[in-house]
Design brief:
The structure is a homodimer of 523-residue chains.
Chain A: E1 7-9, E2 12-14, E3 20-21, E4 24-25, E5 30-31, E6 36-37, H1 41-58, H2 63-79, H3 81-92, H4 96-119, E7 126-128, E8 142-148, E9 152-155, H5 169-177, E10 181-184, H6 190-206, E11 214-217, H7 221-230, E12 236-240, H8 243-255, E13 262-265, E14 271-274, H9 276-295, E15 307-311, H10 314-326, E16 333-334, H11 338-354, E17 356-360, E18 369-370, E19 373-378, H12 379-384, E20 396-402, H13 405-414, E21 418-424, H14 430-443, E22 444-449, E23 488-494, E24 516-517, E25 520-521
Parallel strand pairs in A: 7-24, 9-10, 9-12, 10-11, 12-13, 14-15, 14-21, 15-20, 19-20, 21-22
Antiparallel strand pairs in A: 1-2, 3-6, 4-5, 7-8, 8-23, 16-18, 17-19, 24-25
Helix pairs in contact in A: 1-7, 2-4, 2-6, 3-4, 3-6, 4-5, 7-8, 9-10, 13-14
Chain lengths: 523, 523
């Protein structure tokens, strides 16, 4: 595929006229062709007009057609072959195997949402039939289903150029819900974005859908991003990125004449608790697992274990000393962009001012290589210094040494909202863990036992979300099939004749949905 | 019951020390004893501390205990007998029969949520079991349930002193979800609020629950209201009232260090469409139904039909002339408060400046009597004058006369978000109605055929919600069992030993929930 540097507004490839970005190969610090000129307000206007024009018909496509569309996107992405993965590797500095895995995840995710669409549980159909004889007043026939919110603006993430970008989780779940999507590509991987965007546009055409179902824009967050979020035709926003970026979008969305929901996944340091018996039994193994999780993908995961909490003692000393032996053997890894690398260096320098350095990874060879860092601090310092709780995006982590269970609890209560919390425990730790659990449930969207948080399964039960500032909306998940629920709203139909009812609500139940019928769930 | 004029902070009755309000009997314009002094910041602090202390244990009460608690509240309200209804009648000017009906609705609502709690579908349990052999990576055991968001602040509504006030829909659904509730009583019915509040506190005690599960505060929105919404321990807000009041709370909630969801039900004029064939066949009957719905309860329903849309012609003339004959026979009715009466008068005066008066109700005899009003305007005037779309709370309605289907569509697209939209139609109108339906689905939470919107059934399929400004969150309903979903968030448990899992997620499924197990819904 020859990259054009153009945006996709519906089926049209259109060149922007604002400042250009080029991808930078972070491994070599060299810019890559072509240039991607940013769009202007007229381009945003055009994409929103098309999305709006497509909305009413797209949201009422049959479940079968919408599912086939999602599958067609997956097929089209796979058909891009090595060209896609080569470009993504060059633009992100991520290893080939990781990018190939991510492509599998991305296409699997689209197909999972296709199955979810077909099953139709997300429609949450509820039927209360008429009771004309009821006293003192008859009951009307009432039927509820969910419909799509409207066109959705999706902001691609830097750290998942496929799985959380142009055709990633936000796009897949919004399209599944029946929402047209306008993606603002992340400037770090514009070529990957163009390839995937063209695959989506091709699937739109292949399935005979209105072209406004999908557009792909380039440009700055301030220009194109805010213009998108404040356009009256955009009805929800999906975002994965920094806290400041997410908050800016949330504020813009709230300041609209009609405020809209923003699903921003922003900031998490993912505390891992090492309970005494587990630590005593396997401090060295825990250290190995920890260092592996910490340094995976240069630590550039939202769920990276950035905090370790444990009670002081020889077992914790063994954990720290083993981790401190392992870390210097870890090569510095290319980070996603020069900007992310610089932010990491700044964050590490800040932690160095406030905590003790326990160990460092190998010294970097080449540009934008993030060197892993392990820091140590005491509970009272952590409790009194907000700087120690700031997310440092990359392979940096902080061990908080607590004197006793009470300090562990205080540290936990002091934490901001998190995507995950991890508990390493043995049988003898269960009572302690049980006592801490209510705090962790209040703090995090996913709790893990004896694992590491960096793997995020795409499945029904996943929660990739959590209280603020992990996300802007703790009631939702951005990974897994429940992500579709973010883009829906309920509508009730009272005393409608069958011919006017949507299929999902008709008396004959032609879609064979498992409805809640007069309070009973149908088999 | 001797009213004390005191707040309830947990089980303690405490007198406020700020400016006092007394209820005013609007029928006679006379103040009623006792005085209710407003609380100060320390009272808010105390109620929030108790609610927070109660949260972790209350949210994990068994489904059976929580359901019994809701039923105990209903029983305690019924045990208040005529004293409650007499006081509510005196404080609101609403007729006895209406208040008795509302008590039935309120208690029925509590019992409906008890059934919902027991059924447990709101937990949305999803289980994906481990796949240790999966390639390339094993899958962990992942289990999701929903937990309560945290303590909820509820603002009582003026127009439903029972069903949307101290133990109304917001309180019932938040308690059902496992959230402690702090109610700020509406100043218009403080005595009713005290009685119901004491019934709730009695049920808390009877069920052996922590006292912080429920508190009742008095005071101004600026003082107590904003202090509640900005307290870090409050995690969600339920509100029914004016647009300005709802927006102020939403803004305060968004400006917090940790923003929280606000469910504000605010403003709706509930368009009713009279399609040509139906209008031709039964203009007079429609006019009777319309006037009945318009004037019910002095028009003080969120779902009052404040807008009628139809195409010009002799059939519409018949509708208008019949309504104009009926309206002068409708007595002016006591409105809820002098403030609401004054706002109604102002709104009517404003409409009088911008539209033609078709008819008026009987002249008022006595204070605070709202006189029904019917106005007429043309579509182009409506499209160009935002004043014609402002909600006038009370028995005022505006007929928008359209030249043709296109103007009907333009008027519809021009509408702000609504709680309801009503379609009066016959067989011959189906094509027209079908064409308009996508617009109405985008505009309203509930669509009705051949009825009037003022009845709102408490059931599974009800949606009392809708796009902004009908509510601040179109993804939710404040009436019906789905209202519980507003106060929940998902939490995922990965690789947890059974003993550490909450009951709902344990391998043996002890609560016999219908889980989503490996993608299949259990029978």
């Amino acid at each position: 595929m020859i990259l054009t540097g153009k945006m996709l507004i519906g089926q049209q490839a259109i060149a922007g006229d604002r400042e250009a970005v080029r991808a930078i190969n972070p491994a070599t610090d060299t810019p890559m062709e072509p240039a991607y000129h940013g769009g202007n307000r007229a381009h945003v206007e055009q994409a929103c007009a098309l999305a709006w024009a497509a909305f009413d018909s797209y949201r009422e496509t049959s479940l079968a057609i919408r599912a086939s569309f999602l599958e067609a996107i997956a097929d089209a992405i796979e058909a891009l072959g090595d060209e896609l993965t080569d470009r993504a590797v060059a633009e992100t500095g991520l290893p080939h195997a990781r990018i190939q895995g991510e492509r599998g995840r991305t296409c699997g995710q689209l197909r999972t949402f296709a199955r979810t669409v077909r099953a139709g549980e997300w429609l949450d159909v509820r039927v209360d039939t008429a009771q004309p004889q009821r006293q003192p007043l008859p009951r009307a026939d009432l039927r509820q289903r969910h419909i799509a919110l409207g066109p959705v603006a999706v902001f691609g993430a830097s750290n998942f150029p496929l799985a959380f970008s142009v055709a990633g989780g936000d796009t897949a779940s919004a399209l599944a819900a029946g929402c047209p999507v306008i993606v603002k590509a992340h400037g770090a991987h514009p070529g990957t974005s163009e390839m995937v965007g063209r695959a989506v546009a091709q699937a739109v055409k292949h399935c005979g859908l209105p072209e406004g179902v999908f557009s792909l824009l380039y440009g700055s967050g301030r220009d194109v991003g805010i213009a998108l979020v404040t356009d009256p035709r955009i009805k929800a926003v999906g975002f994965t990125g920094s806290r400041s970026g997410g908050l800016a979008l949330a504020q813009a969305a709230q300041a609209r004449p009609e405020p809209i929901p923003v699903y921003a996944e922003m900031s998490s340091i993912n505390p891992a608790y090492l309970f005494p018996a587990a630590l005593q039994a396997r401090a060295e193994g825990l250290a190995l697992g920890f260092v592996t999780s910490l340094t995976q993908g240069a630590g550039q995961f939202c769920t990276n274990p950035g905090l370790v909490v444990a009670i002081a003692g020889t077992a914790l000393d063994r954990f720290i000393s083993t981790a401190s032996e392992l870390l210097p053997r870890c090569a510095a890894q290319t980070m996603l962009t020069p900007g992310i690398f610089n932010a990491y260096e700044t964050g590490v320098a800040e932690l160095t001012r406030h905590a003790n350095v326990a160990a460092q990874g190998m010294a970097p060879e080449g540009p934008n290589r993030g060197r892993a860092h392990l820091f140590i601090t005491q509970a009272d310092a952590f409790l009194n210094n907000p700087a120690l709780q700031a997310e440092v995006f990359g392979a940096a982590s902080l061990v908080v040494v607590c004197a006793n269970d009470d300090e562990v609890r205080q540290v936990s209560e002091h934490l901001e909202g998190q995507l995950t919390a991890t508990l390493h425990l043995d049988e003898a730790d269960l009572t302690r863990a049980k006592a801490l659990l209510p705090v962790l449930e209040r703090k995090a969207g996913r709790l893990l036992v004896n694992g590491w948080p960096t793997g995020v399964e795409v499945c029904d039960a996943m929660v990739h979300g959590g209280p603020f500032p992990a996300t802007s909306d703790s009631r939702s998940t951005s990974v897994g099939t429940a992500a579709i629920l973010r883009f829906l709203r309920p509508v009730c139909y009272q005393d409608f004749p069958d011919t006017l009812l949507p299929d999902a609500l008709q008396h004959g139940n032609p879609q064979l949905l498992r409805r809640l019928l007069n309070g009973q769930r149908e088999a």
